[in-house]
């Protein structure tokens, strides 16, 4: 008998996460402790519980720019090698506890230099934390080094991605406010990465519309789209029928992965509600959709909770959740043979076991 997954059951499923920001997933207790150790005095709330509530409240403004302001405090306490390694280690622990077997976690090295670290020292500290996390919790975490789109260090960061790609850095990304900062400003970095046969994703179609997506794909050559929610603007819906515009059709035909983050997309104003999130239509139209957390602290979420919200909103069952998960693993920036090992050796067997152990039948 097919069953509707519960949150408890979903936590046991072997999941894959492609879009998660290291500085958006700190434990509030860790922020407080790191602030005390480093002398950071700008926290808006001094205790962990109050700080958690502050982050979640500040993230619900409906503005991407306001949402991004919350990172001042997490980045502020991540300015030493010890802090970066600790945060990465705890990230691995938290993701593993949520049933995630493979994750790609991104961060911007250029934002962690205030304490005197070099870009290389930042990267190595984060890699150390995730390496220890893999040893202790069994989770494989690849990192994406991110360049800030309003700055001018993208070539340096791209070179870091290539230099450390055999040590755990699996790709490159650009992030930050989209409006006024098109991805083409960093075209030299993307062309360099392509020449080096390196992988990269681009935040696009979250705070800005179709031009951002078009540039990311056709000018910059992105392997994946961070969010890509506004691709919905190129789809006309008439009842059960949908007509895809040229760009939407291209994205679907080329199987370009969309790294969607439902809760975060609502917080930043990219979607109105879970029930109205474009992910429902895009899944029905068989786009390469993946489900992600974006910033677990700011959104007060986990990947299991994101899946549970989709189950509630769209009536999804285990087959749907496995489809999203296989999509994510197919789209990961690790070699093909490793993706197959995860899909055939971990994900499919794990979901097969869970499909018949839920608590209530699907309607």
Automatic annotation (TrEMBL):
Annotated Pfam families: A_deaminase
GO molecular function, one term: zinc ion binding
Keyword vocabulary terms for this entry: Hydrolase, Metal-binding, Nucleotide metabolism, Zinc
Cofactor: Zn(2+)
GO CC list: cytosol
InterPro entries: A_deaminase, A_deaminase_dom, Ado/ade_deaminase, Metal_Hydrolase
Keyword Metal-binding attached: yes
EC number assigned by the record: 3.5.4.4
Cofactor note: Binds 1 zinc ion per subunit.
Binding site for substrate: 21, 23, 176
List of residues binding Zn(2+): 19, 21, 203, 294
Any one GO BP annotation for this protein: inosine biosynthetic process
Active site, UniProt feature: 206 (proton donor)
Site positions (Important for catalytic activity): 227
Family assignment from sequence similarity: Belongs to the metallo-dependent hydrolases superfamily. Adenosine and AMP deaminases family. Adenosine deaminase subfamily.
Function: Catalyzes the hydrolytic deamination of adenosine and 2-deoxyadenosine.
Name this protein carries in UniProt: Adenosine deaminase
């Amino acid at each position: 008998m097919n069953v509707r997954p519960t949150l408890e059951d979903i936590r046991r499923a072997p999941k894959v996460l492609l879009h998660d920001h290291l500085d958006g997933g700190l434990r509030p207790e860790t922020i407080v402790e790191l602030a005390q150790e480093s002398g950071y005095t700008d926290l808006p709330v001094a205790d962990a519980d109050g700080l958690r509530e502050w982050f979640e409240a500040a993230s619900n403004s409906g503005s991407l720019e306001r949402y991004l302001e919350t990172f001042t405090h997490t980045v502020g306490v991540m300015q030493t090698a010890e802090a970066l390694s600790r945060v990465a280690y705890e990230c691995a622990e938290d993701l593993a506890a949520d049933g995630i077997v493979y994750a790609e976690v991104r961060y911007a090295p250029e934002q962690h230099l205030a304490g005197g670290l070099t870009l290389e020292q930042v990267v190595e500290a984060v890699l150390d934390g995730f390496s220890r996390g893999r040893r202790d919790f069994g989770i494989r975490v690849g990192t994406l080094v991110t360049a800030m789109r309003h700055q001018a260090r993208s070539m340096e960061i791209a070179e870091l991605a290539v230099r450390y790609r055999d040590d755990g850095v699996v790709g490159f990304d650009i992030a930050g406010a989209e409006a006024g900062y098109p991805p083409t400003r960093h075209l030299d970095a993307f062309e360099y990465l392509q020449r080096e046969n390196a992988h990269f994703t681009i935040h696009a179609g979250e705070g800005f519309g179709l031009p951002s997506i078009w540039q990311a794909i056709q000018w910059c050559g992105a392997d994946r789209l961070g969010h890509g929610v506004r691709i919905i603007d190129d789809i006309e819906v008439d009842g059960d029928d949908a007509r895809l515009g040229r760009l939407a059709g291209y994205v679907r035909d080329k199987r370009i992965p969309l790294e969607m983050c439902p809760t975060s997309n609502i917080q930043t104003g990219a979607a109105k509600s879970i029930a109205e999130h474009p992910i429902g239509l895009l899944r029905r139209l068989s786009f390469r959709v993946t489900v992600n957390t974006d910033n677990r602290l700011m959104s007060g979420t986990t990947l299991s909770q994101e899946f549970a919200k989709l189950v509630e909103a769209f009536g999804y069952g285990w087959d749907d959740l496995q489809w999203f998960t296989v999509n994510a693993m197919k789209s990961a920036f690790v070699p093909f043979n490793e993706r197959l090992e995860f899909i055939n050796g971990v994900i499919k067997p794990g979901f097969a076991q869970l499909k018949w152990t839920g608590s209530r039948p699907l309607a």
